[in-house]
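Notebook entry, structure prediction.
Reason for the run: the old model in the group folder had no record of what sequence produced it. Starting over properly, with the input documented here first.
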Amino acid sequence: MATHDAAMAGPGPGEESLGVTNGKLGMWTFLVMDAMTFAGFLAAYARLRWAPGSNWPLPIEEFGPVGIQLTALNTFILICSSVSMVHVLAEQLRGNMVAARKWMAVTVIGGLIFLGIQGFEWTHLILDLWPFVYTDATYGFNQNFAATFFSLTGFHGLHVSVGVIYNFILYLGIRNGKIGPEDTSITEIAGLYWHFVDLIWILVFTFVYLI
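New structure, fully documented this time:
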């Protein structure tokens, strides 16, 4: 009777449900909803850009070749951090937690470098190119372009910041022995988030800097 009741109760916290762990299902649900939010941002960007009389500037005119090249480098760094996240899971599956910890450190450092370069870019734009953030003076630039740029890149930067903190906590867990070879689902969930952040940035980079 007890066995029958346990079977009827269904999976417990973290156990498989519908073929995946509850944590992974929850992350997928969150990512789908988050993707809709980014889609709204990108749709608003497109609507403002292609509206009649928008006078939308070309990215190369606003950022310059050096600015776009710097952001392309930053994109490459974020992609590399996504690759290193794959290595974390691969080494964990092999049971080599020392290597998994090192790859996680690489992932965290990649995220920090990305945020550092983005912070440098924001500082330059706010102080030199689009100083409307801290003054009421009128300047000859497209404020819709500047506003959508800060909204898109800022919202994404917030996601990268959360991911860096998330991955650093996992790094500490691996280093302290609280996450072992059997805890692959934890790494998989973190990987889903980090790969999502990487994919979204490729879309943002293409829309804002290249088209």
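Summary: The beta strands are 16-17, 20-21.
The old model has been moved to the deprecated folder.
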